[in-house]
Amino acid sequence: MAITAEQLNAFLATQGVTLDPLMVDAIVELANNPALQECFDANGYTPAVQTVLCLYLAYLIALGSFSRFITSQTAPNGASRSFNQATLSDMWKGALAALGAFDPANCLGDFLPADPTVTKKYFSRVGVACYNRR
After folding, report:
1. pLDDT of 130
2. Which residue, 41, 87, 35, is CA-closest to 57?
3. Residue 45 contacts by C-beta under 8 Å, 6 or more apart in sequence?
4. Can you name the residues that pair with 67 across neighbouring β-strands?
5. H or E stretch covering 72
6. Which pLDDT value is given to residue 30?
7. What distance in Å separates the CA atoms of residue 77 and residue 65, rounded to the nearest whole number?
8. Are 19 and 83 within 8 A, CB to CB?
9. For 26-45, what is the mean pLDDT?
10. What does the alpha-carbon distance between residue 91 and residue 73 come to, in Å, rounded to a whole number?
């Protein structure tokens, strides 16, 4: 089951996230990968589970595009919004936990972006000459 840009925008809005329409369209295209649909069908995932998985996959891809979310909102018309900075680690872990509960066949395994909370370490090795000294 494919997700739409409208569905993704609605889901992201509940998380206090607004993305550029071009970004939303690209993320929707990534989440609607035909290989995912084949895996979902082969493992008997219901349409509802497929939608949840695709939305969470899109959410994980979108995580790198924002760094704040709405914590409270008021209106008619004492207009007010409060934002909070979420840690990327907390958002990432929460989304992965939700995916794990719905994807026991690991259909999304190859499609998940790399964990942005893990710092890559680069090592270089410099040649060392050992001299026989007496």
Report:
1. 47
2. 35
3. 53, 105, 107
4. none
5. strand 69-74
6. 87
7. 30
8. no
9. 91
10. 20
Phi, psi of 12 (to 5 degrees): -65, -35
Q: Any idea what DSSP says for residue 19?
A: -
- CB proximity list for 65: less than 8 A, separation 6 or greater: 17, 19, 23
* Buried/exposed 42-58: b ≥16 CB within 10 Å, e otherwise: eeebeeebbbbbbbbbb
And the tokens for 80? 């007010």
Helices (H), 19-87: 21-31, 34-42, 47-62
Q: What is the pLDDT of residues 58-115, one digit of tens each?
A: 988 887 665 555 566 667 887 776 766 667 677 777 777 767 766 788 888 888 777 7
- Both tokens of 119, joined, read 């710092």
Distances from the Cα of 34 to the Cαs of 17, 39, 101, 104, in angstroms?
26, 9, 22, 19
Cβ-proximal residues to 42 (8 Å cutoff; 6+ apart), any chain? 105
